[in-house]
């Protein structure tokens, strides 16, 4: 599964493009009949050089613009991150100026070709080609800042999670040690994919789960949805905003045995913080480690969280019910049917 920025090739700097263009100009060799008059040879040679340079300069800029995912078609999850990382308006205007630079290079090349055709001496043809190279180089250097912006954008966006926003997504939440990883590992078809999480040093774990013929994504966010919201810094809050664009549902996991060191009461207060951060999302609560919890703990958990599904993920108990409840809650969301590939 790919994310839209993953396939963007490295962005060349202005100097690299100019260097490539000048080398290309020197490389061009044209097969010319011996008997051709010197002026004709010069015209052919210089025209080929201009065309070759136009290809590696304007052609490169155009392919660069094409390699950037169309902003209008980006899923809000990725658009939100792009906005936070670089500013969508900045990216848009940089791309606009790069496209314009390519068009101007084409015009300058056309003009140079005309002058080469009407040249009356080889020197004149050479001069027209050199003038073109100079103009093209300065147009590319003027785009230096825009190229840098796109290069920086690629750096920031290329490692984003390959979460597929078209697949219904449930995000796991709950204090460390409650059993989130155990659940993800036990229900995923393959080993969960580990990706750096946007703007933070944290990692995001994505598992693909096939329930019947429905494919869903289960996302675990260590260090993000496992501690109180008021302890989050600005960056972490932003990543939560982006995460909210991807999530369709939250599964809040409780350690009913309190063995992880968090009382049921503090787990409840984490849950209300999370529910405040995602007011539009439904939260399902699961009481895990039912095998290790006392009757008193289970009763208290039920009093605090309301009647919730019990599970013992480490023993494989309650996993089928977990999947079924998640699927029911995702309900009418249309995820793609699994076609036996891509995961
Ligand atoms: N007794 C018991 N232990 C569990 C259960 N589920 C997970 N654990 C254990 O709890 C510890 C933390 O689990 P982990 O999945 O890493 O929690 P996470 O931090 O929420 O991802 C591990 O030692 C698990 O083996 C369970 O249902 N019962
Ligand atoms: Mg974990």
Automatic annotation (TrEMBL):
Pfam family, one: NOG1_N
Coiled coil (residue ranges): none
Domain G, chain residue ranges per copy: 169-259
Every NOG1 N-terminal helical domain range: 5-164
Family annotation (SUPFAM superfamilies): P-loop containing nucleoside triphosphate hydrolases
GO molecular function: GTP binding
InterPro entries found in the cross-reference section: GTP-bd, NOG1_N, P-loop_NTPase
Protein name: NOG1 family protein
């Amino acid at each position: 599964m790919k994310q839209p920025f993953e396939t963007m090739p490295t962005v060349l700097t202005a100097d690299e493009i100019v260097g490539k263009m000048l080398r290309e100009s020197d490389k061009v060799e044209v097969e010319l009949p011996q008997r051709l008059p010197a002026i004709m040879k010069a015209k052919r040679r210089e025209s080929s050089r201009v065309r070759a340079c136009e290809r590696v300069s304007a052609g490169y800029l155009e392919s660069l613009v094409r390699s950037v995912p169309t902003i209008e078609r980006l899923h809000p999850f990725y658009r939100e991150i792009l906005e936070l990382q670089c500013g969508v308006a900045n990216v848009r205007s940089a791309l606009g100026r790069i496209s314009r630079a390519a068009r101007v290079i084409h015009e300058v090349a056309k003009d140079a070709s005309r002058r080469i055709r009407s040249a009356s001496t080889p020197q004149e043809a050479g001069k027209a080609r050199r003038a073109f190279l100079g103009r093209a180089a300065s147009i590319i250097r003027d785009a230096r800042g825009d190229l840098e912006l796109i290069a920086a954008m690629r750096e920031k966006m290329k490692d984003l999670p390959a979460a597929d926003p078209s697949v219904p997504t449930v995000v796991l939440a709950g204090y460390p040690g409650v059993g989130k990883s155990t659940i993800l590992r036990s229900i995923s078809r393959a080993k969960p994919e580990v990706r750096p999480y946007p703007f933070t040093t944290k990692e995001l774990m994505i598992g693909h789960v096939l329930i019947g013929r429905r494919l869903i994504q289960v996302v675990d966010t260590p260090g993000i949805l496992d501690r109180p919201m008021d302890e989050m810094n600005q960056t972490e809050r932003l990543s939560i905003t982006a995460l909210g664009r991807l999530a369709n549902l939250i599964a809040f996991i409780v350690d009913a045995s309190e063995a992880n060191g968090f009382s049921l009461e503090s787990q409840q207060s984490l849950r209300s913080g999370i529910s405040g951060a995602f007011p539009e999302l439904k939260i399902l609560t699961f009481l895990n480690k039912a095998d290790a919890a006392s009757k008193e703990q289970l009763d208290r958990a039920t009093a605090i969280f309301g009647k919730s599904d019990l599970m013992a993920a480490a023993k494989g108990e309650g996993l089928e019910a977990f999947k079924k409840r998640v699927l029911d809650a995702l309900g009418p969301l249309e995820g793609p049917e699994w076609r036996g590939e891509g995961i």
